[in-house]
């Protein structure tokens, strides 16, 4: 299978990730709940992953809260900063993991910046929203649909200038783009473990620049006499038993990224995305590409998106079609009614993947 759906999850993990998961399942117990070797081994593994993440994302190990996915982290962050009726600035390319929690809370979303690959428009509209008065801002680092990399450093500067607390959704950027908690000054940055960080599904991290409001209550292995959740990180937001095998695999994924270099991975993904976009344009298709683009490309095919993706799947090509859980992004791009077919490259992006995809699509187009 030619796998081109890394925007949903990394599929072919580095071998060390699988090995780490198996080793943890066979040797580790519950971290922080005992002094025997199996429990201590689990605690050391969890601490190692926190320290790796802290070093990679410019924060302390204590600021790293383990979650079950990025959506989990975003819910914690949004519920901490946003109350019913609050005005909240968001970009025009947000995922439902941002918009649905805001909708549930009854927040008023001020959508700022609708033009793809246009930093000037994004920054102009974002500053306008901040200037108009908002309680908080939530914005993606990179669009999961179109691969548009937003100017997060400048957006962070604007938030600090207008004294607006903000949350960054790093679902599509962690592991391929620099994510700098301390430098940006974010209140929270949420990320999945299973995408660019190459860990197992069911893992994620929330980087906390301030104390979060717990989403769930329960045991932490610490401060047990306290009827409430501990007031210190990371325990405050980690109720219940951690996913130790998942965290062990995530640690192995982070180690692979450190050895390989995220800049190198980003260049590889970006190169294939550009090659893919050029090939799609030669086929006469509507392609969304431009400056500030990651390793993701969307296009509108000649025919139904879902049918095209199903035909490609029968030829061994894995892509994703539809609205990609991001109707706001499609509304901004004018594709809400049609959806798109998305091609998203991973750390193993290679010319052969692009070639096989374009050949299969050309063959399919020719048969219609």
Give the topology, please.
Blueprint: E1 2-3, H1 15-27, H2 37-57, E2 64-67, H3 70-81, E3 87-91, H4 96-105, E4 108-112, H5 119-131, E5 136-140, H6 152-161, E6 166-169, H7 181-184, E7 188-192, E8 204-208, H8 244-260, H9 262-282, E9 286-288, E10 296-300, H10 305-314, E11 317-318, E12 320-322, H11 327-333, E13 340-344, H12 351-367
Parallel strand pairs: 1-11, 3-4, 3-5, 5-6, 6-7
Antiparallel strand pairs: 2-8, 7-8, 9-10, 10-13, 12-13
* Percentage of residues assigned to helices: 40-55%
Class by helix and strand content?
A: alpha/beta
Q: Which value, in Å, is the CA radius of gyration?
A: 21 Å
Count of individual beta strands: 13
Number of helices: 12
CATH H-level homologous superfamily name of the largest domain: Type I PLP-dependent aspartate aminotransferase-like (Major domain)
CATH topology-level name of the largest domain = Aspartate Aminotransferase, domain 2
Q: Sketch the major β-sheet.
A: 7 strands, mixed
Overall body shape: globular
Succession of helices and strands = EHHEHEHEHEHEHEEHHEEHEEHEH
Using the 3D structure, state the CATH architecture of the largest domain.
3-Layer(aba) Sandwich
Number of domains: 2
Distance between the termini: 23 Å
Strand order of the largest sheet: 2-8-7-6-5-3-4
Main CATH class of the largest domain: Alpha Beta
Q: How much strand?
A: 5-15%
- Would you tell me the overall average pLDDT? 97
Q: Which spans of ≥5 residues are poorly predicted at pLDDT below 50?
A: none
What does this structure look like?
The protein is an alpha/beta fold. The protein folds into 2 domains: 2-11 and 262-367, Aspartate Aminotransferase, domain 1 (Alpha-Beta Complex); 15-260, Aspartate Aminotransferase, domain 2, CATH 3.40.640. The chain contains 12 helices and 13 strands. It has helices at residues 15-27, 37-57, 70-81, 96-105, 119-131, 152-161, 181-184, 244-260, 262-282, 305-314, 327-333, 351-367, and strands at 2-3, 64-67, 87-91, 108-112, 136-140, 166-169, 188-192, 204-208, 286-288, 296-300, 317-318, 320-322, 340-344. Helix 5 packs parallel to helix 6 (152-161) and helix 9 packs parallel to helix 12. It is globular. The mean pLDDT is 97.
């Amino acid at each position: 299978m030619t796998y081109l759906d890394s925007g949903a999850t990394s599929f072919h993990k580095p071998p060390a990730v699988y090995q780490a998961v198996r080793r943890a399942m066979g040797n580790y117990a519950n971290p922080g709940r005992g002094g025997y070797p199996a429990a201590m081994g689990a605690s050391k593994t969890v601490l190692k992953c926190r320290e790796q993440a802290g070093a990679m994302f410019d924060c302390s190990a204590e600021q790293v809260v383990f979650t079950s996915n990025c959506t989990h982290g975003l819910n914690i962050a949004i519920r901490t900063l946003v109350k019913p009726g609050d005005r909240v600035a968001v970009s025009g390319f947000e995922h439902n993991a941002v918009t649905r929690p805001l909708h549930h809370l009854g927040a008023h979303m001020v959508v700022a910046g609708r033009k793809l690959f246009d930093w000037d428009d994004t920054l102009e509209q974002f500053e306008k929203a901040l200037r108009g008065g908002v309680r908080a801002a939530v914005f993606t680092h990179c669009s999961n649909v179109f691969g548009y990399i937003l100017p997060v450093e400048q957006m962070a500067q604007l938030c600090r200038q207008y004294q607006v607390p903000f949350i960054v959704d790093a679902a599509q950027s962690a592991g391929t783009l620099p994510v700098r908690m301390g430098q940006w000054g974010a209140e929270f940055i949420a990320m999945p473990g299973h995408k660019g960080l190459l860990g197992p599904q069911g893992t994620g991290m929330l980087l906390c620049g301030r104390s979060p409001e717990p989403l769930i209550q329960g045991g932490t292995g610490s401060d047990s006499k306290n009827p409430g959740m501990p007031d210190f990180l990371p325990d405050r937001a980690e109720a219940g038993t951690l996913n130790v095998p998942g965290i062990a695999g995530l640690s192995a994924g982070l180690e692979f990224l450190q050895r390989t270099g995220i800049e190198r991975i980003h260049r590889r993904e970006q190169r294939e995305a550009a090659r893919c976009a050029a090939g799609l344009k030669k086929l006469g298709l509507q392609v969304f590409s431009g400056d500030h683009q990651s390793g993701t490309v969307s296009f509108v095919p000649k025919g139904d998106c879902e049918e095209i993706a199903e035909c490609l799947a029968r030829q061994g090509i894995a892509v994703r079609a539809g609205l990609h859980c991001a109707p706001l992004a499609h509304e901004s791009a004018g594709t809400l009614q049609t959806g798109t077919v998305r091609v998203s490259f991973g750390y193993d992006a290679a010319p052969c993947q692009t070639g096989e995809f374009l050949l299969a699509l050309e063959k399919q187009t020719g048969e219609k």
